Known about the structure:
Elements: H1 4-14, H2 20-34, H3 47-58, H4 63-71, H5 74-77, H6 82-89, H7 91-104, H8 111-128, H9 131-145, H10 152-172, H11 176-190, H12 192-208, H13 212-226, E1 232-237, H14 240-250, E2 261-267, H15 270-283, E3 285-286, E4 292-293, E5 306-311, E6 317-324, H16 325-333, H17 340-343, H18 353-364, H19 368-379, E7 384-387, E8 393-396, H20 402-409, H21 411-415, E9 417-422, E10 425-427, E11 439-443, H22 460-492, H23 499-503, H24 514-523, H25 528-535, H26 557-561, E12 571-572, E13 580-582, E14 594-599, E15 603-608, E16 624-625, E17 628-629, E18 638-647, H27 652-662, E19 666-675, E20 679-688, H28 691-702, E21 707-712
Parallel strand pairs: 2-6, 13-15
Antiparallel strand pairs: 1-2, 3-5, 4-5, 5-6, 7-8, 9-10, 9-11, 12-17, 14-15, 14-16, 18-20, 18-21, 19-20
Helix pairs in contact: 1-2, 2-4, 3-4, 3-9, 4-7, 4-9, 6-7, 7-8, 7-9, 8-18, 8-19, 9-10, 9-11, 10-11, 11-12, 12-14, 18-19, 18-22, 19-22, 22-24, 22-25
Amino acid sequence: MLRQYELVDLVKSYDPDADEDALNRAYVFAMKKHGAQLRASGDPYYSHPIEVAGILTKFKLDSASIIAGLLHDTVEDTDTTVEEVRSLFGDQVAQIVDGLTKLAMIEQKSANNKQAENFRKLLLAMSEDIRVLLIKLADRLHNMRTLKYCNPEKRARVARETLDIYAPLAERIGMQEVKSELEEIAFAELHKEAHDSIVARLNFLREQGSNLVPKIISQLEKDMADNGIKATVSGREKTPYSIWRKMQQKNASFEQLSDIMAFRICVDDVATCYQALGVVHSKYHMVPRRFKDYISTPKPNGYKSLHTGVIGPENTRIEIQIRTHEMHEVAEKGVAAHWAYKQGEKAVGRNFRWIRELLEILEQASNPEEFLENTKLEMYNDQVFCFTPKGDLIGLPLNSTPVDFAYAVHSSVGDTCVGAKINGEIRPLRTILQNGDQVEILTSKAQHPSTEWDRFVVTGKAKAAIRKYVRAYKREQFIALGQQVLERTFKGENLEFSEKALVNILQNFEAESIDDIYAKVGEGLVTSWDVLRAVYPGYKQSKLGRVVKSLKPVFKKSDDKKAKKGEPVKIKGLIPGMAVHFAGCCHPLPGDRIVGIVTTGKGVAVHTIDCKVLEKFADEPERWLDIAWGDDALEGMHVGRLKLMLTNEPGSLGELSNLIARHNGNISNLNITNRTVSYFELQVDVEVKDLKHLTDIIAALKASKVVSYVARASQ
């Protein structure tokens, strides 16, 4: 454990103006407050914040950060208050400690909720001051180093959370050393056998090639010197976790990986980087598709370097990274390499575009779990770089599409995207973007996000925006449907319906507005009779349910007028755009008498009037809707289901298929439900225009010698 004077000396070594008195007072304050508390390892608890502060000195952070690191657990675990911290150490330290304390004060029922809510709070805190994230990473790093003292269940949970959240966050701010150590400890905990196997192979390679690495370094140094380039050359080995992850991604064995060893050439300036690259490529054969220029197109975390794969010295396939000394410092220490005290300005999260994007996702997510899912997508490596028509660079994950690109430009561009030009040619929105593509997004004010987009977009920002729109659109549908159902129920009972009465019963249904009640009724979470009884306590239901089958369709003229131009309305009696689906029990077709049933969470289910399933809803007339086929119902194809018995002989199945095809039907699904020596019993779904079309096909099948029995499945 660092002693008091050692910690102060470390800070003063890189920041001579550090507040030595405040550092001493914070060290003593932390020891006194944590007192006799012990960690799982049996060490005094105050050893943890002191070690966290020690890690922060390696990041070369300002004294306010070091003090906050010393005090980060005092408010949570002792009787210290934020106001006390503020009075003793100032507003800046108090704000950071308060942000860190809020992360720990979460009480949720499920572990997943806790993780998601924790991450949400971390994002909000680090958007105000990125130092909250740096201290949290140091805190997590020390906890991971002492993870072995925890019980197995906690070890696994903390390791998984570290891989999912904290290691990617460390990578996002360019802290490669922290990211690698977090990954290694978590990997060894979660996949011990794989970790030990890779470590054993690496040890074997070191023994076999003990002289190879120095030879390669020596040769590269000579190559640079011969061309007048002053350079520092070093070799580095990939970590076991990065090797394992690449094996998983490429489905390759350990022996198939070519870049287990990488060599780094550090020079004085950018021009010399490209000069060194020219020397390497002129002397050694380059491996195709292994060159990446992160100097002209840096990674989102600020990483800059030239990467190339070559058949290098000793005829060995190696990876070479070429960068300046300053780039190397940023690559290892990330945001901490150019910290605020060096630049004389406050470094806050708003300076990072990716944090702003995560905040947008936070605003659009419906719950912490969805936010966590989308942000995990957002945090992984950007691997595709595309350009706007103006030449602006947009970094995206692998397999991104123009819709992902549109949302990366701006949320409003994504929402109104109707098409895309890729390298000057109009291409489908689901096209996979490639490195260097120039993408122009075509927009229209009349456009809105499509549910289809959610199937092919890959960025968290795009998914969050699309899902937000879908939720809002469905809510509008459910509100309109719920109001219609309530008005019909009240009218059927000859009772007055007024929104004023609904205001008085909001608490009964945990609703904040009348629209909330309408939406719950429309979605089927609450029945209209529940609402009616809340408005008129003690009222008894009439005999309406007994005469459901005598209902005659009654349509509002205004409904059809609400239809959007060009939007087909196949069901009358429903609000255009209403969530609707055709019941799989009876497969209704145009020509059938139909009825609508309000279902839970799925909108309206359309049944034939003689469907046996309707018996379940005989006592719930409020869920029945008067509907009928629209005039344009014949424009599309519908599925009719047949059950039939087919002779078991060669060619009978072909005869069945040909008969249906000759009558312009199309088999969309076929299932053999039973078979004997003589017969097959089949269930066949046929695409037809209407009931008459299906009836004609049934008549043709009945006349066939190979068909012993055929009928519509619902009958």
